[in-house]
Amino acid sequence: MSKKRGSLLSYRPDIKVVDATLRDGGLVNDFRFTEDFVRDLYAANVAAGIDYMEFGYKASKDIFDPKDFGPWKFCEEADLRNIVGDNDTDMKIAVMADVGRCNYKRDIIPREESVIDLVRIATYINTIPAALDMVRHCKNMGYETTINIMAISNAKESEITEALQLIGESEVDGIYLVDSYGSLYMEQIDDLSDQYLEAAENTGKFTGIHAHNNQQLAFANTITALTRGVSYLDATVNGMGRGAGNCASEQLLGFLKNPKYDIIPLLKFLEKHIVPLKESGVVWGYNIPYLLTGQMNRHPRSAIAATKEKRTDFLNFYLELGDKD
After folding, report:
1. Burial of 207 per CB tally in 10 Å (0-12, 13-18, 19+)
2. Do 147 and 292 fall within a single domain?
3. How many domains, the chain?
4. Distance CA 213, CA 236 (A)
5. What is the pLDDT of residues 143-182, one digit of tens each?
6. Assigned domain for 57 exists
7. Residues 126, 169 share a domain
8. DSSP secondary structure string for all residues of 150-218
9. pLDDT-derived band of residue 4, with 50, 70 and 90 as boundaries?
10. Distance between CA 304 and CA 278 in Å, rounded?
């Protein structure tokens, strides 16, 4: 078991905060953010000391119709440069590529031609071999890479062990623990973090965590992983993300002790953009249906539907989830 690293009064210089507001938050509004929203978020993240900003997905237009989504579903180079120019800042640019949903050989261009620094490859445990092919391509193109294993709460212990061994032997830079359903508790995060760290550190890789807030544990689980030694921490402004959302950036930066991080730019952004966005009817965050899918370790799609329908028959919803067993 890994030793607890750091204390409430210290900070670790290896910690990196990754803003995923556009990418995970884009799942709430089909990536239809105004240009002012994106520009101001970029500026706020730079001013706040955020280490990476994930702009969205590298999704294939052969699968997803561009008419149905905003530009950050696809993160084309021209759209990125329209916001960041040559990104002459200390903050790095990231995108996510889903296994089976990205034409990576066509759409991920050489790093020297792009402002993107990091490609995060999202995979389920049964598609690890395909994810490793994507890693090889992206590394050959010159990018930093991570593998983000989704829905890890549904995986068997033997599957996790084998997956981490395969990833550990690969050339990927980092391995992400992803609580896709918001179902994990801190004790489980302890154990999984130790398992991921052992696989990563034996092969010179870093580890990250991406938490969902179904049980209002996204922040707690994130800092629990941090104390075990996990170093890349995902967060979104006001927790904006699919369903119950994520660990809130302003909450995380208020906790971290590194003086490079500054919560004030995020608070200004919240006032200017997040408050009116919520007032316009865009919905995310904890509620009872998300709590129940988290407790029952279920994909939140049924809770998303219940939220859109404004259901308040919570007992019936709970019984319906049980009937699906």
Report:
1. buried
2. no
3. 2
4. 11
5. 999 999 999 999 999 999 999 999 999 999 999 999 999 9
6. yes
7. yes
8. --GGGS-HHHHHHHHHHHHTSS-SEEEEEETTS---HHHHHHHHHHHHHHHHTTT-EEEEEEB-TTS-H
9. low
10. 16
Distance from C-alpha of 99 to C-alpha of 186, rounded to nearest angstrom: 28
Q: What is the pLDDT of residue 323?
A: 81
Q: Is residue 5 part of a domain?
A: no
Element (H, E) at 21: helix 21-29
**One domain, residues 244 and 298:** no
**What value does the mean pLDDT of the chain take?**
96
Q: Distance between CA atoms of 147 and 128, rounded to whole angstroms?
A: 9
222 and 74 co-located in one domain: yes
Sign of CA dihedral 255, 259, 264, 269: negative
Chain centre to alpha carbon of residue 73: 14
Angle among Cα 31, 299, 235 to the nearest 5 degrees reads 50
Residue 10: pLDDT band with limits 50, 70, 90 = confident
How many CB atoms sit inside 10 A of residue 323's CB?
7
Q: What is the 3-state secondary structure (H, E, C) of 211-261?
A: EECCCCCHHHHHHHHHHHCCCEEEEEHHHCCCCCCECEHHHHHHHCCCCCC
Are 60 and 161 part of one and the same domain?
A: yes
Per residue in 278-312, pLDDT tens?
999 999 999 999 999 999 999 999 999 999 999 99
**In terms of domains, do 217 and 143 share one?**
yes
C-alpha angle with apex 40: 35 to 42, nearest 5 degrees? 100
Q: What is the pLDDT of residues 13-61, one digit of tens each?
A: 999 999 999 999 999 999 999 999 999 999 999 999 999 999 999 999 9
